[in-house]
Amino acid sequence: MKRIIVFLLALSSVLTPVFFTGCANGDLPPEAIKEYPECSQAKMDVYRAIYQETGLNPVIESTYDAEAKIYTNVKVNAYLKVGFDHYYIMSQEEFQSIQKYQNETGIQVIYPLVSVNDRPTKEKNKYDANIYYQVENPKANTVRPKLDQNGNFIPNYWMYAVGSETTYIIADYNSLRIEGESGVSVDGVNYYYVYGRLLPEGIEVRLFRYAYYEYLKATDPEGCPSAEIFFKLY
Fold it and tell me: Hey, where are the domains in the chain?
C-alpha cells in the first residue's frame, strides 16, 4: 500500500496571506484542530481551493493513500476549513463598513462573486460560495474542478465592463480587490470583478468567514459571538 505523508504547514501560496489573530496553526486551541480518519478527493479539493484563493491553508497534515485514492489522518484548521460557506446577504451599511475596514487594515473580507448563470445547477452547490472556480460538469451532484495545465483552479468570477447594461445590479465597490486584479482586458475591453450583487433584500456577497469574524471582533466586540459558536466547534 503506497502512502504519501503530506505536511502543509508552510507551503508557498499564490497570494500573499495576511495572518489573523489565532489563525496560525501553532496558536490554535485544541478544539480548533479537527481530525478526520478519511477525506475524499472532493473534500480536499474544497480545502485546496480555499488555499489558492486566500493564501491560507485549512489543511495542517494529511496522508495520501495512492492505492485507495483517499486521504487519511487528516488534520485541519477549523477556523479556515469553513472557507466562504454559503452566499451571504447583508445590508448596504454593513457592505460599506466592511469596505472601510478593508481599506484601513489591508485584510480582504469580501471576494469576487460568481454570476448566478455560471454557478452549478444543483441546489446544494448553487449557493456554495466555496465553488468560485470552473467545474467539469455544473449539473453533477458532486462537482469536480476544471484545472489548468499547472493543476490550479480556474477562477470563474463574474466580470463586468464599466457602463455595461448589467451594472444596474452591481453594488458600488471601492475597496480592496484581490491580488492581480487591475482590470481584465478581453478584446480591448477592460472588465472588473463583481464584489456585490444588488437584491431587493440587500447585497449578496462572498465572505471569507475567518476574515469576517476578525472584522466582527474589531467593530463589534460586545456583540461578536465566541469562536466556538461562530465556527461551530462544538
Answer: 3-81, 84-113+157-207, 118-155
